[in-house]
């Protein structure tokens, strides 16, 4: 990994994001629009100051045809590109044939559909839609825009696997580079913020509606008082690059991707559209470890999926079973969602950026709001990180995401030591 | 409506401005300036330019007339004729 870009509810850019992770700064805020519309959950995570930030990245013409999902992806992708020390491909030059992108999204441009496409179409005003509908509502809108901004010439695509999207993107990009089909791949995910994106989750009653008056306490993974996740948004993008290419151009290497795996539990053995098959989860984790060529005991830290639904204790138990350890020997485990909420298709990307920052800078961020540990997790009490700590010896992080559809993804990062 | 040709021209330039990728060409634009070639407006966005012209001048532009607009002057004359 030679470049990182992040636009999170608690910070834009690596410096701000690292500071927020270390300080336990929550990006969850009260959202008056949700309250006015009678949402049960009236808090959410939205990147701040984007109106201002976007002017430094995108022209008026580009912004004309971009919704928040696309804008977030573009900002994080440009940041990752610049962080990788690459020169921008000028509009007159050939594309960079060696570099591509897998930038996913969970829901995509549904806000554009709801606010513009559907009302005008229903009113018989298709002729008034303008030219910018398709590029905003096509599933690949985010990666397509990034391709043009950066002049990418390798595979450019958008994956979608619900809450596993961002992590899956990294596994896919890793595989493409390993197969020799690309030198570099931007990988990660983005998700806009919209009442239309969040309404369906609110209707399912999977969002926490008990902390509207205390937003920073609303996202409570691992907690006895967890009552659902908090919706988030933003983007996290990583530049994956072959070691040969990175060394050849003298790039700074943030960390290595050692391996990764994706699979599906098939909605069997207790799995369903919305619940994970534990056997599938454990196979995915073990598959990632196997492709990484490490022992389970090499893992120092787990950046879990851990959303603050009923599934958290099951996830921890799946990690324990997959690694074949007793609870007190589980690697340290944390939830970045406690700080930013669940950014859906962007979650994996943002949380992978967090994991890589922790590896490179030698720290482990604390999980907010887990002091009242879930009773099923008592045996793991010593392994759950509440307060940020320095950990210069941190060497291997396992990051996993699990999504609706019973889909799983796990990636293994290692500190680069040359 | 009784706008002068120059007033219409300035208003059209203002409408095109957000879509123009060649701001320097826009600054020195004249009636013969090509919207696509000189101002480097993405051809798909001509649809949006015409929609904004319709709104700004309160006119309706037929598809076949819109297709003939290549230069700023074409747009200005089309507006003046329609608003006539």
Secondary structure: elements and pairs:
The complex is a heterodimer of chains A (418) and B (84).
Chain A: E1 3-8, E2 11-12, H1 14-23, E3 28-30, H2 32-36, E4 43-45, H3 50-54, H4 60-64, H5 68-83, E5 99-104, H6 110-122, H7 134-137, H8 141-150, E6 156-157, H9 165-178, E7 184-191, H10 195-203, E8 234-241, H11 243-248, E9 255-264, H12 278-292, E10 301-303, H13 312-323, E11 332-334, H14 337-340, H15 347-361, E12 363-364, E13 389-390, E14 396-403, E15 407-415
Parallel strand pairs in A: 5-6, 5-7, 10-11, 10-14
Antiparallel strand pairs in A: 1-2, 1-8, 3-4, 7-8, 9-15, 12-13, 14-15
Helix pairs in contact in A: 5-8, 9-15, 12-13
Chain B: H1 5-16, H2 23-27, H3 46-57, H4 63-66, H5 72-83
Q: How does this model look, in words?
A:
The complex is a heterodimer of chains A (418) and B (84). With 418 residues, chain A is an alpha/beta fold. Chain A contains 15 helices and 15 strands. The radius of gyration of chain A is 20 Å and the shape is globular. Chain A starts with a strand and ends with a strand. The model of chain A has no long low-confidence stretch (mean pLDDT 98). Chain B has five helices and no strands. In chain B, helix 1 crosses helix 3 and helix 1 (5-16) packs across helix 5. Chain B is globular, with a radius of gyration of 12 Å. The chains are: A alpha/beta (418), B mainly alpha (84). The A-B interface holds A 59-61, 64, 128, 130-132 and B 17-21, 42, 44-48, 51.
3D shape of chain A:
globular
Overall body shape of chain B: globular
- Strand portion of chain A: 15-25%
Which bin fits the share of residues in helices of chain A? 25-40%
Q: Which structural class do you get from the secondary structure elements of chain B? A: mainly alpha
Q: Give the averaged pLDDT of chain A, no decimals.
A: 98
Q: Could you tell me how far the N terminus lies from the C terminus of chain B, measured between alpha carbons in angstroms?
A: 8 Å
Biggest chain pair interface: A-B, 8 and 12 residues
Residue ranges of chain A: pLDDT <50 for 5 or more in a row?
none
> Number of helix segments of chain B?
5
* Main beta-sheet annotation of chain B: none
- Low-pLDDT segments, ≥5 res of chain B: none
SSE order of chain A, one letter for each helix or strand: EEHEHEHHHEHHHEHEHEHEHEHEHHEEEE
Rg value of chain A = 20 Å
| Count of DSSP strands of chain B | 0
